[in-house]
Write a structure and sequence with these properties.
Chain lengths: ~375, ~160
């Protein structure tokens, strides 16, 4: 294959594989959410949908849901703004899909004498792109709330715009520490930076370098994704279903997909920035090298598989953490959300930057 | 003396580690994970009754859908005395009496309809019946149906059970 053709083929293949991985995980996560919730609450959960009598613990329920959404009437309420009403789900889903682009799914691979990054686009503004794009999700929510022409969605939209804007601030600031330590905003360099060791024993993961930053980022991310305990925008006991009250059929499922994609991408971002991305502790390019001095050689193909497997495992864990947290913690009151965002998270994020800067300055001297 | 003032116990003030929430959240995560794992390991411990396959056993005095009793020769035990229809507060029983072919019995119900949509399951008909011809001991609800007509149970339906 010639040069440019090869590049295009690689680009398309990367997009196809990573996109379908994330979308597949979305489908699985809807099942995990329902089944996990059921078992946590001592129920059985979905177990009825079957294909030729095979029920497989309700695994076919996402399929049944999707089919049901596809065949439902595409309804537009009378009071809705027709154009914006139809644009809102797209505005909600598109940023969630776009954020997949900068996540490194594995180390560089050499294929046919070329180095190929397992990342759709290794932008030099990596995380800034991530923030810029995911900041746009709020438009989808606000637009949905306003265009529905109904009271509850409007309230939900207002709540979520205030909440997302507040937490955007502490989310951005909580990551400054990471930039300072790894001296880059490029995702691949941050992951590469986490391959070293701290004090000769601990892997130099973001969570060990920036424990406070990790907690702040995790909390801010739950608020950004509108997940419990920050799911005020769709608080069903007060607002019916919040901003997507007036949505049905596939438009509703687009909002759902956006929410779950946020979970998956969010999990991938946490894994990348704070848990070493595709790095496996003590695993170098040639094999394991434990701090005690013992070593174990591992063939390169296995190293690659281990690293991609480690990344997928971390993503699965953090995606599960979203579900786990959701069925553990009750929803905050609105004033509590705002107080936490502005009076606790923001000062702590600033403190984190200050302390990180101080330590780095002292270490340099 | 002033009006009796009742001292209401205030919630205990949270200690510092509790007010940080983080430890408490981790404890809560432990509780939910405990439930999840124990429910996965011991499925039979889950209280859910899987309805169409498994049915809840109703208590013996549960008033369910009605049934009409039969004589030994298979004829309805009902003598069409209208006691149940009179006692019924919801007026859901319609009886049309006819002369019984059996010389030992005076009347029998030609029609005996119970409008299950109006029935309030009070059990007055059962109490009123002098011949123990109507009972509500089927141990199950009226099953749902898609037309109103199907939910007016006729004598044949009531004798089946």
């Amino acid at each position: 294959m010639t040069g440019p053709l090869f590049d295009i083929a690689v680009a398309v293949a990367r997009i196809a594989v990573f996109f379908s991985f994330c979308l597949g995980l979305v489908v699985v996560m809807t099942w995990v959410e329902r089944k996990g919730a059921a078992y946590i609450q001592d129920r059985r959960g979905p177990n009825r949908a079957d294909i030729f009598g095979i029920r497989a613990w309700g695994l076919f329920h996402p399929l049944a849901d999707a089919l049901k959404f596809l065949f439902k009437e595409d309804f537009i309420p009378d009071n809705a703004h027709r154009l914006f009403y139809q644009m809102a789900p797209m505005f909600s889903l598109a940023p969630a899909i776009l954020t997949i682009a900068v996540i490194p799914f594995g180390p560089d691979v050499t294929l046919m004498g070329r180095r190929i990054a397992l990342q759709i686009a290794d932008l030099n503004v990596g995380i800034l792109y991530l923030f810029a794009v995911s900041g746009m999700t709020v438009y989808g929510v606000v637009l949905a709330g306003w265009a529905s022409g109904s009271k509850y969605p409007l309230l939900g939209g207002l709540r979520s715009s205030a909440q997302m804007l507040s937490y955007e601030v502490s989310m951005g600031l909580s990551l400054i520490g990471i930039f300072m330590v790894f001296e880059s905003v490029r995702m691949s360099q941050i992951v590469a930076g986490q391959g070293g060791l701290l004090f000769g024993a601990l892997p130099k993961w973001g969570v060990f370098v920036q424990p406070l930053g990790f907690i702040l980022f995790l909390v801010a991310q739950y608020a950004e994704a509108n997940r419990t305990p920050f799911d005020l925008p769709e608080g069903e006991s007060e607002l019916v279903a919040g901003y997507h009250t007036e949505y049905g059929s596939f438009k509703f499922s687009m909002f759902m997909m956006a929410e779950y994609l946020h979970m998956v991408v969010g999990a991938a971002v946490v894994a990348t920035l704070f848990f070493g991305g595709w790095q496996v502790p003590y695993l170098g390019d040639a094999g394991f090298l434990f701090p005690g001095g013992s070593a174990a050689a591992v063939p390169p193909a296995v190293v690659l598989l281990l690293r991609i497997g480690a990344f997928v495992g971390k993503v699965l864990f953090f995606a599960w953490l979203y579900v786990w947290i959701r069925w553990t913690i009750p929803r905050f009151r609105y004033d509590q959300v705002m107080r936490l965002g502005w009076k606790v998270m923001l000062p702590l994020a600033l403190l984190n930057i200050f302390v990180t800067g101080l330590i780095l300055l002292l270490l340099k001297k | 003396m002033t009006i009796g003032v009742k001292k209401v116990a205030r919630p205990r003030k949270m200690s510092f580690p509790e007010s940080l929430y983080l430890v408490e959240i981790v404890k809560g995560l432990g509780v939910t994970m405990g439930h999840l794992l124990s429910n996965i390991v011991r499925q039979e411990g889950i209280k859910t009754i899987e309805y169409p396959e498994v049915r809840r056993v109703m208590p013996p005095r549960f008033r369910g859908r009605h049934r009409l009793m039969k004589r030994e020769n298979g004829a309805p035990r009902c003598v069409a005395c209208y006691c149940c229809a009179t006692a019924c507060p919801a007026k859901c029983i319609t009886i049309v009496a006819g002369e019984s072919p059996d010389p030992g019995v005076e009347k029998y119900p030609v029609r005996f309809d119970i409008d299950m949509l109006r029935c309030v399951f009070c059990g007055m008909c059962v109490e009123a019946c002098p011949c123990d011809a109507i009972r509500m001991d089927t141990g199950w609800f009226t099953s749902p149906d898609d037309t109103r007509e199907k939910l007016i149970f006729t004598i044949d339906t009531l004798l089946e059970k």
